[in-house]
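Q: Fold this one first, please.
A: Sequence and structure below.
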Amino acid sequence: MASYHLSVKTIKRSAGRTATAAGAYRAGERIECQREGRVHDYTRKQGIEETFIVAPENAPAWAQDRSKLWNEAEASETRRNSVTAREWELALPSEISAEDRSQITREFAEELVSRYGVAVDVAIHAPHREGDQRNHHAHVLTSTRKLEPEGFTAKTRVLDSAKTGGVEIEQMRGVWAELQNRALERVGEVERVDHRSLEVQREAAQERGDILSAEELDRDPELKLGPAANSMERREKAAAEREGREYKPVTERGAVVHAARQARAAFREMRERVEFAREVYGVERDAGQGRVSAGLAALRAATSKGRVTDDVRERLARITDRGQDRGGQSDEEQAGGRNYARDRLKEIMDKDAGRDGQAAVHKLDGHSDPELGEETGREERKPSVNERLKDVLNKPREKLEIEDGRDQDKDQEVENDREIDREIDRDPGLSH
């Protein structure tokens, strides 16, 4: 599943960091820092898939020399607490190819150059060999000054200012989300990323009437593990996989993150079941089934994960084709349909064994609400929906098919009687 991540950090002298060391480490190269007289050699570093530098058109030729570039950036700063570089850390979609990942990263770097006039040094890293193999990412190191023909000049204060820095970064977050979504669309992926906060996404879902998505987004942001805890959890996951046992977090942060991910996975599965049940209900209704039979078929489909028959798959394919023909349907109507299916299934499953449950059964059977006395006993009243569902779900498939056939025979008899009545009405010799 595609996920979004973009973080911005600064390389500060006050923290004991240098642009030369940062550039050497991320690119896996050897750079001698002329200001400090130290050599940063990371040529043995592995997992670096690609590196390249993007600079303004009128930049000096030495801008393409990584060692010269970052030594010049260090030389342009004179204060002990100067910020000598800025790093943009990007998560790359695992669903697209390495070429596509390189392309969208280059486009992002070009946007930084165009917007701020800085030099950009890009290093694309592969997933850690012991970590999540979907964790493709890029380190985008930029100068904090504009790069012009004479060298580094004015500071990019628009990114440093408290008033404008947040706005600029948020705009670049949107740019990165758009680049990823275009790449995902090109390869036919349905998933999309969203750079907005969970709160903003939830409010947007509520405005368009998508209550299920709003509930899914009503959570806290995932806790960041940090390097130490992340390393411990990676080792434990690898050990659990080797030994064939269930993974259990070994740190408090890991336990919180693991529980949150399990909850999100359970919610996604529930949502998939609800949506699938809605599709099955529509298929069965189109096939001539009554509301009760179609509802039960939908609930059986929702509770039978991984046991979808070929017949249902074929019917769903036909529904999908019809859905494409209904392209003119508004977003509000589509959202309304999804919400109705969810609310209806929730109503059916949550009804208790009392009056509400019996009323729901009568309503689904096409009758008006019965007058049920308060003194109606368990032996005299009809079974509740939950009781009927348990009974149906526990029946063998052959018995269900026989009962469905009986229902269809009854429906056919009723239809034949109606046809006879219509023939009598049309025949003048039989009229009274």
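Q: Good. Now the second chain.
A: Here it is, same layout.
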Amino acid sequence: MASALRTGLTWLLSALHDPRHVARFQELCGVRGPFTGNRAGARDSGGGGGEKVEGTQRRRPDREGKGKEQDVNGAVNGTANGAAGESARARPSNGSGRDGVARGPLRKNSLTGDVGHQFVISNRFLYYAFTLGTELGNELFYISFFPFLTWNVDPYVARRLIAIWVWVMYLGQCTKDLVRWPRPASPPVVKLEVFYDSEYSMPSTHAMSGTAVPLGLFLLTYSRWEYPFLPGLTLALSWSALVCVSRVYMGMHSVLDVIAGFLYSLLILAIFSPALEAIDTFNLSSIYAPILIVSLHAILGLFSFTLDTWSTSRGDTAQILGTGAGIAVASNLNHQLALIHDPPASMLPMQAPPLSLGLIGWSLLRFVLGVVMLIVTRAVMKALTIPLVCRVVGISSQDVRKARQHMQVELPYRYIVYWTVGFSAFFLVPFIFSCIGLS
């Protein structure tokens, strides 16, 4: 009985990990690549009855003695993960044809500079919907959403939601580097996005953040703000579903990656949520909180850099930890200076103010000015930090991409830059708003 159950579970996991299911879903949604329709080649790439959950990678040392993970198709983490051959490569194009619109990935690979291969979209609605879904898990969204929530809605909810996001993303990135599964093979999968293609695949951190953020937002706001339960829960679940499904549509994850990310995020939420009150109270009121938070996040960053050879996920992890540390320190300073006040318990639950042109105008003004200040802060810190760190550690900064592949450069660079961005979003920008009468 146990053996049959184990065999059935292994078959199910193998089937859910099969890249051919991703390719079929893409074709059903109107996505075609240069190799779509050549199902014989797809079967060869898919590995017969689906990719095996175990044994898809083998260890191969490089010349310096450091191991790199290589999947059965030869993709190496840090180069082209599950990438198509050169014959499938093409520069991005937006030309139209009889059967659809020819396009290329919106952004090139963040590590290799690869532009990806061209594909044809015959269902524009799904393309734009799932592009929106995948952007809900990218940096541009978070650098806009979290500050807007802080400056215009509820700082209490914002800082607790960010604490959830930091832990979910950190654990997700570390798990990727422990499991070390490659991205879905291409062909048969069409890669609509290549920006994160050099990272590992299991679990989907887009699915994790796309689950933790909307569900965490719902759990944190339902008892503080008056709104109907069912529409709020429906919106949160719809947000999560859009992000999760978009990762399969983009060809970045197998069905199993997304399911695992969704369930893993729920597990972290269930464990972490009861501790939020104690963590937030400590972050705000303890005089030791700033130094402990900065030190803990830096140590976690050092640990994550030891899990595998360098890839773009190293920098993303340092970025997430730096942002969380900066926001926590800023929140502590806000509390000490009474710059941002949480509403007293007697005011709960709060009602959303009626919409007016004045409310919308002031909110947009705070948002636009604040985001501009954050973008300028990030640009200045990037320009200053990379040369400074390279000089301190003795690494040439002539080739920035190559220099950032060293832990001594990438970890402090990302941590310092995004610590500053997080601190600015929660302290510097609100302080300026209070000085000019925008708070």
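Q: Anything worth noting on the second one?
A: Residues 13-55+73-125 form one domain.
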